[in-house]
Amino acid sequence: MSELVYDLAGIGFGPANLALCIALHESEEAKLKNFSMVFLEMQPQFAWHPALLLPGAQLQVSPIKDLATMRDPTSAYSFLNFLHSQGRLAQYINREQTVPSRREWSAYLAWAAQRMDCYVRYSRKVVEIRPKEQNGKVAYLEVLAKNHITGEIETIRTRNITTAVGGFANVPSHFRSMYQWPPASPDAIPRVIHASTFLPQMERLDGFLQRQQHANSHEPLRLAIVGGGQSSAEMLCYLRDKFPRANLDMIVRASALVPSDDSPFVNSAAFDPESVTTFWESSAKARRAQLEEFRRTNYSVIRSDLLSQVYEMVYDQEIDYFDSYSPEKGMVRIMASTEISEAEKLEDGRIRIATYTTVGEKLVRSDTYDAIFLGTGFERAANTLPFVNTLADQFPLLSAEKARELRQRELDEDTDIEKLSNPDAARAKLRGITRDYRLVPSDPKRWRHDPSSVCALHPSVMQRIPQSRMGREGSRENSLASSRRDDSGYNSSSTLSSPPNSNKTNDQSLARGPTNLYLFGCNEYTHGLSDSLMSMVAHRAGVVSTSLLSATTGMSKH
C-alpha cells in the first residue's frame, strides 16, 4: 500500500482550520517530523461570511484576536503584518478606531488563506468518513469528498481529522417550507432570506422589489426583519437605505433591543484563553449558569454604535416636519415583546405573518409582507453534520440522543471531579470530548485513545495565567504533557515555526500515532461561549497543534 496517509485532514477552511494550518506551517517541530496535512473546502475559494459584508459593517472583536497573535505575537500571519504588507499600517493607526471594517477583516483572512494554498483543496464537499481497521484497531480514516469541478469522489486517508465547517442557518419552523438555499431555479425569486445568504439573495430580490415599488407607487413595500441581534440591525439599516419608502417591521421577542456587553471584565471572564480552562473545570450546573449570564455578549445583542443608529432612525421619523426637498420615507417599527404564531405564503407570493405581544396588553396582529429577512442565528451541533453519520454509533457526541444522555448524566452525578485521581480524564469521559477538542469514542481501546492525555496549554497562554492559578494548573497540565506517550512510546515536547507538505507511505504513517477526530465550533456547552467565535481561533490552534504533534512520531527511517 503506497497511498499517502496524511497526519491531518481538515474539513472546512474557515478561520478555525486556517489558524490551525498556519500554526502547523510555522511549527519547527512539525517540520522536523515531516507533518503532512490537507484541508478540504466546499467553496471554490476562500470566503468569510461574504453574504454579510455590508457597507459600514464592523468587526465585533479586537483585531489583536486574529489568526495568530494570541498564539505567537511574532507570527508573520498577524493582522498588523497584513496591514504592513499592504502598505496601510500607518493609515490604519490614523483611523483611531478600535476595530476594522468587516470588509478589511475579510481581506486579511483571504490574504492569509492564499499563503496557505498549497495545503487546501477547494470545491470539495465531504460526504462521508470511514474508519479503517488493522489488527482490531482503527489505523486511519478515509474521507470521501466530492470534487465539484470533476464530479468525482476522491478518497483522502488520514490519521487525524479536524472538523470546522461553521454553522447552518437556523430557520424558524414557521418559515422552513418557504426558505430555500440554494434556489430551486435561476429565475426563482426568494421571499424568505436568512442573514447567512443575505447579499447573494438580495441580488435576486432587489430588481423584483424595485419593480414592485415602481408599479405600486401608491402602496409602499412592506418588509419584515425577524430577530433582534447584530445581523438583524445591519439588514434593517441596509434595507432602509436601499428602499427608503418601504415600511420596515423588526419583530423581536425581547422587550427591547439591547447592546452587546463588550466591557473588559466580561470579556476577560468569557473570552480570554484561560477562561476556556476555567470553564472546562467547572461543573455542568456552573457552566450552564455562566452561559446564561454571558449570553448578552453574543446572542440577540447589537453593537452600541449600531444600536444608536437604529434608535436615531426611529426617533427621527417621529419629528413632524415638512420638507419638499426630502424624499418620502417609510416607517420603521420595532415590534418588541412579539412572538410569531403563524406564517403563510399567499397566492401572489407575499407572506402573511400573525403575531401576538407577550408583555402588557396582548395585541394580536396580522400583517402581509413582500419579503421576510431572518436574523435568527445558526445551528451548531455535531450531530447535524451529514458526513459523520458512519461514526455516530462510535462517538457519543455525534449522536443527538447519546449527547443528551451525556449531559443529563453529568447533571445527575454532579461529582466533585477534582477529588478524583485523574479529573481531566473523568471530565472527558462524562462530556464526550477532551480539553484539547478530541472526541472521546465509546470504545477507546479500539481507537487507541487516551482521554487523560489532555494537551498542555501553549506556553504563551501559561504566561498570562495569574500566579495564584499557575501552581494548580501549570503543575498538573505540564506533568501531563511531560508524561504523555503514544503507542510507540514516543515522548514529545512542543516547540512552535514550517513544515513541508511531504508524502509518506502508508506503512510509515500508521506508526506515527493514534487516530483522533477533533471538533471545532460545536463545543459551547463544554468549552464556553468563545468556541464558535473569532476570539479563540489562535489560542485553540496552539492547543490543537501541540496535541497533534505530541502524538506524532518522526518519520520512519528505512
From TrEMBL:
PANTHER family: L-ORNITHINE N(5)-MONOOXYGENASE (PTHR42802:SF1), MONOOXYGENASE (PTHR42802)
Natural source organism: Malassezia psittaci
Enzyme class: oxidoreductase
Keyword Flavoprotein: yes
Species lineage: Eukaryota, Fungi, Dikarya, Basidiomycota, Ustilaginomycotina
GO BP annotations, alphabetical order: intracellular iron ion homeostasis
Annotated protein name in UniProt: L-ornithine N(5)-monooxygenase [NAD(P)H]
Record region (Disordered): 458-511
Classification via InterPro entries: FAD/NAD-bd_sf, Lys/Orn_oxygenase
Required cofactor(s): FAD
Keywords linked to the UniProt accession: FAD, Flavoprotein, NADP, Oxidoreductase
